[in-house]
Design a protein that fits this description.
68% helix, 0% strand, 160 residues, single chain
Length: 160
């Protein structure tokens, strides 16, 4: 073991003495190029200054980036689920009858409107108020989920 450490020290000293002139030459070159090195450091600082300012706002960029990704993801999920519900519940806007789609007959828009509108049957249980409301609803051109209306009953109880 003693021989290995002695041999390693001798090799180290030989390499050090062999490289000594090269090390001194490199030190002289660095001393000669010191002004150029300082000038390049200064220019690098000037060029990278805007990036150091941007680095101060790193947390804001991360926050806005995550918010953007979540907004796009949420909007896509809502759009997809809305389209699935509309197609599953047949809530799509009115379409032309199959004969008009194939180009079989020329129908005007008025005949298409009358074919697409549901015909309401008035019976004795419906009051005139609801009948007027249904007539008004037929004249409006609503599509999608807006056209679906929930009728609420009037509360006649005076419990309060």
């Amino acid at each position: 073991m003693d021989y290995i450490s002695t041999a390693a020290s001798i090799v180290y000293l030989l390499v050090l003495y062999a490289l000594y002139p090269v090390i001194k030459i490199l030190q002289l070159v660095v001393i000669g190029l010191a002004p150029v090195i300082h000038l390049l450091q200064f220019l690098a600082r000037v060029v990278l200054f805007p990036l150091t300012l941007l680095a101060r706002f790193e947390t804001i960029y991360i926050y806005l980036g995550v918010a953007t990704i979540l907004g796009i993801l949420t909007g896509s999920i809502l759009h997809l689920s809305s389209n699935i519900l509309i197609s599953a519940l047949n809530l799509s806007s009115r379409t032309k009858p199959p004969s008009a789609q194939l180009g079989g007959q020329d129908q005007t828009e008025e005949t298409l409107d009358s074919a697409a509108e549901p015909q309401y049957q008035l019976d004795d249980s419906m009051t005139k108020e609801y009948a007027d409301w249904l007539d008004k609803d037929r004249t409006k051109k609503k599509t999608g989920l807006v056209s679906q209306t929930i009728l609420e009953e009037e509360d006649d109880s005076e419990d309060f």
